[in-house]
Design a protein that fits this description.
heterotrimer, A alpha+beta (178), B alpha/beta (334), C mainly alpha (426), B: 334 residues, alpha/beta, 5 strands, globular, C: 426 residues, mainly alpha, 21 helices, 0% strand
Chain lengths: 178, 334, 426
């Protein structure tokens, strides 16, 4: 009986030791990658959809600052309070798009980017007035629908596209808060 | 036997401590977040109202029963709460009808756009201070968001225990006493913040009200009909959040089908005399005192003409009470 | 009553997912049949096969959930709840019956109670059949004092878990949340705190198991004996997770030869035992087990004449090794241990003490409750006998006060943080 047990234990230890070493080596690769990512927490949001306007890169969920982002002065600015609670949702309207922010601690972060016309397009090349087929060929069939809206999710961002009569009428980036 | 009595006494002590801790740790809603106290103020009112308002902040910020009494002798009460969802309005109406049967119920249709609970915090403002009843249980069950549980509404300490490190003087001052923050449910706000630019009116994926919300609207309609109450639908004259034409059309049709009156008060904002540069305290979402006064004058006339309400100024007893209220109202607004 | 307890256990257990029940029934029934019907012929072989099969299931889940196995990815392998505990209980039962230490259980219902009794099935401790069977199958009778003692024990467990462990978890989550920035002093800080957290959490859970069982009249053995008062690692392992350590001693270390085969073999046996212990915790803790094994071997060299100093050294060693539990990736854990000796950012740590999710009031609660835990551990025997001799009404008062403290100061539920709700969408 003792011998049986000893053999079992030794076999188990050897097998698992082997697996452990193999896995540790694998993991060490990924964990060093992880460490790099952790260094730049902000950049993690890059995994989602990003909107580019020339050199300006807008990432839903990132800190909103006109200066660092290189945005000029907005055309329109509005603040919306919520009833009873403090805090303001701010909206900055530019020529071709509108940015809404939400307060997160002391900072404002980008909540949505709403495209206003067909002068701008998504990083992948979709713009308002494009046909639905173009949306499908650009973003695929992996969407959720609600009414006329098609929502693609990537990382912590949603790309919300409204299609009316087979034509894209609205494009919005939004940050997934949960 | 002695031992038994001692045990009973100890258990009683523990219950008292528990009740006290529960009271101390729950928010008082007396100086901060006063919106949370509105639901309970109704209970010790004299219930002789001919008009009851239900709905979200667009009723409690916009309609002043004191003005309506002064103008037309209408007795009314605003049972609005922050972000009151339609199933909450229904429950609150049911609760109100247990106390009194008004002639007219005014419902602000803004909340039809929300078919899911919006946030836990708003649930708390509406429910924490509500009296226990079957309606409250129904509302809680319909309103809980993910991660919430029913017991935390029964024993508020479960929800608020972590406030032990954030207690303020308010928590001790109002441990046993309360004060009124509204006048018949109207919350005075004298600030002025003119309407500036508003965000773009975004296109929506779906303009149709959900079946759930229409279902509750049906229930409210039926409840009023069964009790011989005239249900009046209104849309308060807020500029934001946008009240889409598609929304309006559905309500117009609903009112027609169900033989109800619907007034979109934004359409008559000019007639009422609302100046969006002076009459709102948060850039177009809610009216401030001057705006609410104008709206109340207009609306009280409309109610009086259409629904043959009693002029209680002729009723000595009622008038005496309301004159007292008016005196403190006047001093509060001046 | 026994049937009721078993039924309740099965229902609760099945509520975690009916598939769990299949595994546990397979293990219980195979072991029950083996023990009951195996005659002397081929005895060792048949028992051996049953043990190997059950052990294989355990190892499959331990390794599978870590790295995936047989082409099944790790995230698709979900271990049945309590598999680590019940498998060891079954193995100890099989080995003991095989050795004829005691008679096999004749009734399947009673045997199932031993395996499936829900309180200890989830977080342990690991019980031996001969320790627990008497009180497990005894006819239960009402005893107010015993029930109140049980409730007090449960409350004490809740106190440890929700006041102490819950708070420390909030601090540590900040530190582990940013492994790149929080190294050196922060890492050491996390390790020192984690020692308290894991003790408060685990022993608090065991307190609840023992307390609930006490209410039913079932005497579950103690699993901890003020472990951080140990002066060396060897002693620590006699006082920490006693159910597991004694199991490993009796069914791994001693069968391997124990200390009877010379110094070198003894040390090797120790190390193997600890590696098995690491594996039992999960495949990624093998290195942790190995370190413990080696350090136990040399624990004599690490002791001084001062008791207090010994305890401090011992506590430090244990804390540092918990790194493998704090940072799930072995490499991160190792680099964190390394950073203690290379990064001296203590001033930054002290400047940041109030920025770890807890405000001053909560830190004070943490400190006070931890001091209470330490006092209890030092004066355990005295306190326990005092509580046992209390009058019924005093016990009720104590329970009431403990419940109030846990309700108010415990970390649970959604905190009231208005900031969370600021953001509302229209």
């Amino acid at each position: 009986m003792k011998k049986v047990l000893i053999i079992i234990v030794i076999i188990a230890v050897v097998i698992i030791g082997g697996v452990e070493i193999g896995v540790t080596m694998q993991k060490s690769k990924t964990s060093s990658q992880n460490a790099k990512q952790e260094e730049k927490v902000e950049e993690n949001i890059d995994e989602g959809f990003i909107f580019n306007d020339g050199n300006i890169k807008l990432v839903p969920g990132s800190v909103f600052s006109k200066e660092t982002l290189g945005l000029g002065d907005e055309k329109n600015y509005s603040e919306i309070a919520s009833c009873a609670f403090e805090g303001l949702d701010k909206t900055y309207t530019y020529e071709n798009y509108e940015i809404t922010t939400f307060p997160d601690g002391d900072q404002d972060k980008i909540y949505t980017i709403y495209l206003l016309n067909d002068q701008v397009q998504t990083a992948e090349g979709l713009k308002i007035t494009d046909e639905k087929d173009k949306m499908i060929s650009t973003y695929g069939e992996d969407y959720k629908t609600q009414g006329n809206q098609y929502t693609y999710t990537k990382g912590k961002t949603n790309l919300e596209i409204i299609v009316e009569n087979d034509v894209v009428t609205s494009i919005q980036y939004s940050y997934v808060t949960e | 036997m002695k031992k038994f009595i001692r045990i009973i006494i100890i258990i009683l002590y523990l219950i008292i401590i528990f009740v006290l801790a529960n009271k101390l740790l729950s928010p008082k809603y007396m100086t901060d977040l006063v919106e949370g106290s509105m639901i309970a103020e109704y209970y010790d009112e004299i219930k002789n109202h001919e008009v009851i308002f239900i709905g979200d902040c667009e009723v409690y910020a916009n309609f002043s029963p004191m003005v309506m009494y002064e103008q037309e002798g209408i007795t009314s009460y605003v049972r609005g709460t922050s972000q009151q969802l339609i199933w909450q309005s229904y429950g609150i109406l049911q609760e109100t009808l247990k106390y009194e049967i008004p002639k007219v119920v005014v419902f602000n249709v803004n909340s039809l756009r929300y078919s899911e609970p919006v946030s836990e915090a708003y649930n708390r403002l509406t429910l924490d201070k509500m009296k226990w009843s079957k309606e409250k249980i129904d509302i809680i069950n319909a309103s809980m968001t993910k991660d919430e549980n029913f017991m935390s509404y029964v024993f508020l300490i479960i929800r608020y225990h972590s406030r032990f490190s954030k207690l303020t003087s308010e928590d001790f001052e109002y441990l046993f006493k309360e004060k009124k923050n509204t006048f018949n449910g109207f919350l005075i706000n004298k600030n002025i913040k003119p309407v500036g630019s508003l965000p773009t009116k975004k296109r929506l994926p779906d303009y149709n009200f959900s079946e759930k919300c229409i279902g509750y609207l049906d229930k409210i309609t039926k409840l009023c009909k069964d009790n011989g109450i005239k249900l009046v639908l209104i849309k308060a004259p807020s500029l934001y959040p946008y009240w889409y034409d598609e929304y309006n059309e559905q309500i117009v049709n609903y009112a027609k089908e169900n033989n109800l009156d619907f007034y979109n008060l934004k359409d008559v904002a000019d007639e009422i005399g609302i100046d969006y540069q002076k009459d709102t305290y948060d850039a177009g979402l809610h009216l401030n005192l001057t705006g609410a006064t104008k709206l109340s004058i207009y609306f009280s006339k409309l109610l009086k003409e259409k629904y043959s309400l009693t002029d209680f100024r002729q009723n000595k007893e009622v008038n005496r009470i309301y004159q007292e209220k008016l005196i403190s109202y006047k001093s509060a607004i001046s | 009553m026994n049937i009721l307890i078993l039924l309740l256990s099965v229902i609760i257990y099945a509520s975690f997912g009916p598939i769990n029940l299949l595994y546990i029934l397979f293990s219980s029934i195979t072991s029950f049949l083996t023990a009951k019907y195996t005659k002397d012929k081929n005895r060792k072989l048949i028992f051996g096969i049953t043990i190997v099969v059950n052990l294989a299931i355990l190892i499959f889940f331990k390794v599978g959930t870590y790295s995936g196995l047989f082409g099944i990815p790790a995230e698709n392998i979900i271990a049945p709840i309590g598999v680590s505990y019940y498998t060891l209980q079954i193995i100890s039962y099989l080995v003991d019956v095989c050795k004829k230490k005691y008679e096999p259980q004749k009734s399947l219902v009673k045997y199932l109670m031993y395996v499936i009794y829900i309180p200890y099935l989830i977080i342990g401790p690991i019980n031996r059949y001969d320790d627990i069977s008497k009180s497990l199958y005894e006819k239960k009778h009402w005893d107010t004092n015993r029930i109140l003692n049980g409730i007090i024990r449960v409350c004490w467990g809740l106190f440890k878990k929700y006041l102490i462990a819950g708070r420390i978890a909030m601090i540590i989550s900040v530190i582990t949340g940013n492994a790149a920035e929080f190294t050196g002093a922060y890492a050491l800080f996390a390790m020192l705190l984690y020692s308290i957290e894991i003790y408060a959490d685990f022993s608090g859970g065991i307190d609840m198991v023992i307390g609930v069982s006490k209410m039913f009249g079932i005497e579950v053995k103690e699993n901890f004996d003020s472990p951080y008062l140990s002066e060396n690692l060897k002693e620590f392992w006699r006082r920490w997770h006693i159910g597991l350590s004694s199991w490993l001693r009796d069914y791994v270390y001693i069968p391997l030869g124990g200390n009877r085969k010379g110094t070198l073999r003894t040390k090797l046996n120790l190390i193997i035992t600890f590696v098995v212990s690491g594996l039992w915790h999960g495949a990624n803790y093998i290195l942790w087990g190995l370190f413990h094994g080696v350090l136990v071997c040399v624990s004599k060299c690490l002791t001084t004449k001062s008791k207090t100093l010994n305890r401090i050294i011992n506590y430090l060693i244990i804390s540092i090794l918990w790194a493998f539990f704090i940072w799930p990736s072995t490499m991160t854990a190792l680099s964190m241990i390394g950073s203690i000796f290379t990064t001296f950012n203590y001033s930054s740590l002290f400047a940041n003490l109030l920025n770890f999710n807890l405000d001053l009031a909560n830190i004070i609660v943490l400190i006070v409750s931890t001091i209470m835990l330490i006092i209890f551990d030092v004066k355990k025997d005295k306190i326990i006998s005092k509580i046992k001799n209390m009058k019924i009404e005093t016990k009720i008062l104590l329970i009431g006060i403990l419940i109030m403290i846990v309700l108010v100061f415990g970390i649970y539920g959604i905190g009231f943080n208005v900031n969370e709700f600021i953001y509302s969408k229209f």
